[in-house]
Amino acid sequence: xxxxGRPREFDxxxxxxxxxxxxxxxxxxxxxxxQLKACMGNISPxxxxxxxGSKEALFREIVQxxxxxxxxxxxxxxxxxxxxxxxxxxxxxGSARMQTGHAHPTGCLIVLGASNCSPENHSxxxxxxxxxxxxxxxxxxxxxxAIAQGALADTPLTETLPAVFTAFxxxxxxxxxxxxxxxxxxxxIESLMRLWDSQSMVLSGSGHGGG
Amino acid sequence: xxxxGRPREFDxxxxxxxxxxxxxxxxxxxxxxxQLKACMGNISPxxxxxxxGSKEALFREIVQxxxxxxxxxxxxxxxxxxxxxxxxxxxxxGSARMQTGHAHPTGCLIVLGASNCSPENHSxxxxxxxxxxxxxxxxxxxxxxAIAQGALADTPLTETLPAVFTAFxxxxxxxxxxxxxxxxxxxxIESLMRLWDSQSMVLSGSGHGGG
DNA sequence: GAATTTCTGGACTGAGTATTATGGAAGTTC
DNA sequence: GAACTTCCATAATACTCAGTCCAGAAATTC
Lengths: 211, 211
Fold this sequence. Notes:
The structure is a homodimer. The first copy, chain A, is an all-alpha fold. Chain A folds into 2 domains: 12-65, Homeodomain-like (Arc Repressor Mutant, subunit A), CATH 1.10.10.60; 73-197, Tetracycline Repressor, domain 2 (Orthogonal Bundle), CATH 1.10.357.10. Chain A is built from 9 helices and no strands. In chain A, helix 5 runs parallel beside helix 8 (156-177). Residues 204-211 of chain A have low confidence and may be disordered.
């Protein structure tokens, strides 16, 4: 049962992808309606508002789309079939590769998408901050799970691991934006994970560094 | 020999401080001339342009001012009277405390000040990117110095340390902006430095963790 | 006090902002 | 083909943007 009336002439999905690239590269506020309409195939204001509602509504839809596609590199955090260590390492590595990808803007839309905002757009800023908070809790949950399983020692140091991984993860957005390569970031991740291993109570496999 | 003519009525330094707070909190583009003039004491456009030249010139002056004041937390990186390890730890700790301070906006102006930019302001973006590159090279220099001194092993892992510390440092801007406390960040730094110690060839003091 | 210099208030550019209104064309369903 | 629904192009909304200009006022130096 197709809808009656004249169908829209442009491809809504392709328009969304083009708009995502623009928001991703420039952020929410500096991206103007003119740019958006242009990159969507020179659609008219009327078509834009009919299809997407408003600039903010479009951005919210695009954030959702981003989370369901590129953002899936964070999925391991909530995959309890993985060991907590695997979950975190896979997330970091996947994020590093995604953010340095060459088929789209570098960096992370959730970290960089609304970092510069005037007061009237705090709601957009909050949208992304809430998603970052969700990531933080996911990382914390992994560490807590590891401690509960006895895989990780319950020490003052292990309690700091969530903050270490989170700051590093969010910092990768800056490094990727500044041109850092996936290889460089992945090598850093490999080193960072030894901090976990040094507190690991499951001593199977590689040891823990040494002087 | 004071300059002749009518002196300006507002305090230029105080105006700069107020403008810095605004740019720091909102970033370059979303901060409008109206907001700037208002926070500088409702000065007129004429006074503004006479005193500061343009919005971009003001921003550049403020970045310079920031580097000479708050940005001095990075100074240990180039202080060769410090051991490389001390230099990096002091920089990270100082940065954590500064960015979470309550007397000014949270986060880091150099990381967050122009992260969202339209194409016409790439020069401003570049200004901050260059400063971040300087930081990266400072961190790398510290690690290289430690290796040259024989204080740090020359291994594949130690070669990744600059990327680890840099990503973490830049990530702190996001964490501070999202409300992370100095205590939390400093605890994370303390843990992160054990990565250094695990590769340290100077085994005086604390050992290197382990389960 | 006179001459000079610089600042300030306010009106004003021209361009760009997101968004809305109008009128007619195009395509759909029955 | 008729009725209907939806889309699109154009124009225009009210507003903000960074930046300019001018006339007059204020403070300086001589």
